[in-house]
User: Fold Long-chain-fatty-acid--CoA ligase from Citrifermentans bremense.
Amino acid sequence: MEPAVHNLLENSARIRPDKVALVQGDLRVTYRQVNSRANRVAGWLIDEGVLAGERVVMLLRNGIEYLASYYGILKAGAVAVPLNCELRPEGLGELLAELHPAAVICGSEGEQLLHSIDSDTFGARLLLIKDPSRSFSHRSARVFAWDEVVHDAELADHGLATNAPTLASIVYTSGSTGTPKGVMLSHRNIVSNTCSIIQYLGLNENDVQMVVLPFFYVMGKSLLNTHVAVGGTVVVNNEFAYSAPVIRQMAREGVTGFSGVPSTYAYLLHRSPLAAFRDKLPALRYCTQAGGHMAREIKQRLLETLPPHTRLYIMYGATEAAARLTYVEPELLVEKIDSIGRAIPGVTVRVLDERGEDVAEGEVGELVASGPNIMLGYWNDPTATEKVLDGNGYHTGDMGYRDADGYLYVTGRKDHLLKVGGHRLDPQEIEDALMATGELLEVAVLGVDDHLLGKRLVAVAVPLQENPSDKLLLSRCLARLPRHKIPSEVRFVAALPKYPSGKIDRTACLEAPPLDVPKL
Assistant:
């Protein structure tokens, strides 16, 4: 029988009960303790009448409460729905109305958010709150305190049989390519992808993963599941904005793996003591990057700055794929520096034309993936599901090609192309050229309405130096790009707006407050 997601925790708790599963500051939690608390959550849900398949929303930051809730919900046969506890009240209200959850589990931030939303969209009949401080008497929900329900007293695994195709979790996309959608992932989707990642990264019980990405984001979820599956340790640090303490903690805890999105690594390179700690990270075996395209300049700088024994994995995936689709082997990264690699074990990625037929080597088409990790569909949205799932698999919306060695390259997204003065332009190419100047921390190229050109190009950029010059920046781009691809304007800002996953919020970039740059 195929394992369910929570079996990953149960197996590690049985084999290594006293191994540390979670480190958070001074807190150390063993596998026995995580599993016991997850059993308490499961028992509470079952005792309170939550049925298999009902949704349970989690409004929790990374930590022991998240681990116990996530695996406990799955043990109870319910569906885990992790949400960002920094959502706006109206956004959370819309999601609750869409999900109709049986219960909500939250910490202090989530409690405040729940208390502020409109009662018509509240929905849930049960609340489990860590250190409750507010009254919910105006709601019909029954409120329980976390510490009264969840503790370390031994409680046997419930042993509920869960079929692999059963829905395990609904994970919302970041919204970077449109309105966030609830991606339905089965136990099979998650476990198959977990096993594949373990295989190509060579993970084992000695691995210690530094986690700065939120667990409600699909990449964060994969970091948790992979390390729980092998009996490793996750070190949680929710304060990556202060990157120096993160680097020091990596050295102190003997971290073997670090994972991030492109902006994570840009900030590590330019606004952290990573280079100074190069000789103080002897255990750092690998780093992984996913969550969008990373400029060649950042990859090259990382290869120069990371300890020489640290392997850098460039990866590609999607929430709809339970996290991962492709990777580049570290030993081939220099040769294939612009590639997203080849499909991970158990997955197939093809390049198809509009008729669904394979295109020739070097020819551009859409990347379409198939395998046991591909989602069941979007929650309550059959129309959106039909647009991306068909007999060929999951249509990623990314355009690209395959080289003679079978390595894949992404050239841009179908929906991100800009038409400027009769030319079809891909912002990614222009962003790469701007980053290659070495003048920027990060940049987004956007199209702004223009009555003559239709669109004109605007670069919203974070400079590395004080008093940046837009003229100097653009003149350096002319060596790499034809004139019609050069932005007509550069707006310097202190930071690009981000989604909680760390991906750039392109829609909000034009509203970012400008830096006060003196005119030369």
Summary: Residues 31-47 form the longest helix (17 residues). The radius of gyration is 23 Å.
